[in-house]
Amino acid sequence: MAFRIKQSNISRFTQKVYHIVSRIPKGKVLSYAEVAQRAGSFQAYRAVGNTMHRNPDWPRIPCHRVVQSNGCVGNWSGKGGVKKKIALLRSEGILIRNEKIVDI
DNA sequence: AAACTGACTTCTC
DNA sequence: GGAGAAGCCAGTT
Fold first, then answer.
1. Contact A95, A27 (CB under 8 A)
2. Nucleotide closest to A9 measured between CA and C1'
3. What confidence score (pLDDT) does residue A30 get?
4. Could you check: is the Cβ of residue A47 within 7 Å of any atom of nucleic acid strand B?
5. What contacts A27, CB < 8 A, 6 or more positions away?
6. What is the pLDDT, as a whole number, of residue A7?
7. Residues of chain A with pLDDT under 50
8. Quick check: A31 and A71 in contact, CB under 8 A?
9. What single DSSP character describes residue A64?
């Protein structure tokens, strides 16, 4: 990977996840499963969610671009909750309807 | 070091 | 189509 996250106290897997999430293009979203797949294992989506929830680096990672595989925006621990996440996604040009992604 | 937790996913009813 | 249960991984405690 080109650049390494500043915090080396985290595992390699997490760094990969951050790297991937940071590379999500504007107006696009990836599911936790997709991120997990790229990070190493498809079944690691759990770890991704957990890691994101703990989010040791939340301002630096566009976690709002990470959604569920079923098209739902998922959950959000940040300020404003899911609404904030939706607002951010909409700001990036993503159409959301009833907390669900309309267009990828 | 072991056990619990979780922002998930998929299957079944 | 909606609701519930099971199952996997890594991080945190």
1. no
2. C11
3. 93
4. yes
5. A92, A93, A94
6. 47
7. 1-7
8. no
9. G
Chain C: bases < 7 Å from a protein Cβ: 7-12
Taking the CB of residue A10, how many other CB atoms lie within 10 A of it? 15
Radius of gyration of chain A (CA): 13
* Strands A96-97, A66-67: pairing kind: unpaired
pLDDT in tens, A16-25: 888 999 999 9
Dihedral angle over CA of A16, A70, A99, A54, nearest 10: -30
Strand B reaches within 7 A of the A66 CB:
yes
Cα dihedral: A71, A74, A40, A21 (round 10): 90
Q: What residues of A are labeled active site?
A: 63
